[in-house]
């Protein structure tokens, strides 16, 4: 049998690039034929780390070797992220070589074995992560080695500083610069857009950068993306803030603490969010964005992220120590975390709640309104705008007068225009099997149900909560309504809840 005639390799060793159309999120992947002359001559094996060069650009990518049929021997396929990173075009040819040695991995291995790392070690690791030199498996190893209380205060300070140093740092040339963050674990707690609108309407500067969801059904950036554009660069962000006094943008589109967004991407499937990583992630973003005064909201409840007073005090001390070491004025608030906030859980549903509060609608969720007002009041006093004890009345005035709503509209218009969030085409109520009162709501299970319904990837998916703790419920009454964009996701979420109920009902005492 005659052998197939293989293409003759070019003398420069280059390979014709092809966009394979595979979504590998932000990890760059290159695909090569098993008989590729470059693979053979360089001794490449599957999962090797290689460097791809094109027109003065270079990326580090993970190699996948494919069987005959998908690629010719003189071709290299690129994942979507690798194609974008190289700014490749049809017909381009690139060279592929061994990636440089990753010296900082020795520090990761040291951490895995329980050793303490110093500031230069974290600088090296974070710089390599930000530059895209770590594959996801190495990032996962680093995150795991730092989880479970394996980081002390000095290490957390060093990690925070390394994350700030790896990117840009904005200087607004004035003070105070306000910021606010919730550590999470409480579905629907979307106070940030309301707080930014109130604080900016008061004349303070609040350039808010937010992340997408890590382990929750929605992050602030996911919610705001249903309302306006959030992927602004630093120049556009500055323009919005100088014009309106505030913004609500996605931190991943900026070069502020860029390693954080890479780490978050790997944390998400691991469902991992350690105290040290949480503190370094939150504070590095605040510091890089130029904040001088930050308010940290820590909800505490039996099924929140922070479950006890002991956990709260430990996290509070760590945040305050790291903030103090970095010159950031910080105030930590302990808030109630026994049940979700608002009605919607999921990007678009939470956006509807935010709009209802800002517009002063009669159906606006009272708990979301009151939490946002309390946080805004603390921030107004903390930044010196209001005298102690007067922040609450000022926050109420700005919200009830419509000034906060006008400011929110102006910020959204400056970011690209305000739009109404979509509604999911599929909805199914989940009914109470018996009469009683709502004795407990499991935040984690309810968040899981919303995620299985499609949130946050499907922006309109999630659930709408109809009951609160202590409410009387009749048999057959809707406890919440599932929202989904696909029948399979709707059924999947319903099956999970049937097996793991998130709302506990108890009969009334005799």
From TrEMBL:
Per its record, the protein catalyses: thymidine + phosphate = 2-deoxy-alpha-D-ribose 1-phosphate + thymine
What keywords is this UniProt entry annotated with? Glycosyltransferase, Transferase
Q: Which residues form the Pyrimidine nucleoside phosphorylase C-terminal domain?
A: 437-504
Q: Which InterPro entries does the UniProt entry name for this protein?
A: Glycosyl_Trfase_fam3, Glycosyl_Trfase_fam3_N_dom, Glycosyl_Trfase_fam3_N_dom_sf, Nuc_phospho_transferase, PYNP-like_C_sf, PYNP_C, Pyrmidine_PPase_CS, Thym_Pase_Put
Instruction: Write down the EC number.
Output: 2.4.2.4
Coiled coil located at which positions?
A: none
The biological process GO terms on file are:
pyrimidine nucleobase metabolic process; pyrimidine nucleoside metabolic process
Q: Per its record, what are the GO molecular function terms?
A: 1,4-alpha-oligoglucan phosphorylase activity; thymidine phosphorylase activity
PROSITE patterns reported for this sequence = THYMID_PHOSPHORYLASE
GO cellular component terms, semicolon-separated: cytosol
Instruction: Extract the Pfam families matched here.
Output: Glycos_trans_3N, Glycos_transf_3, PYNP_C
Enumerate the HAMAP family for this protein.
Thymid_phosp_2
The UniProt family comment states: Belongs to the thymidine/pyrimidine-nucleoside phosphorylase family. Type 2 subfamily.
The name under which this protein is listed is Putative thymidine phosphorylase
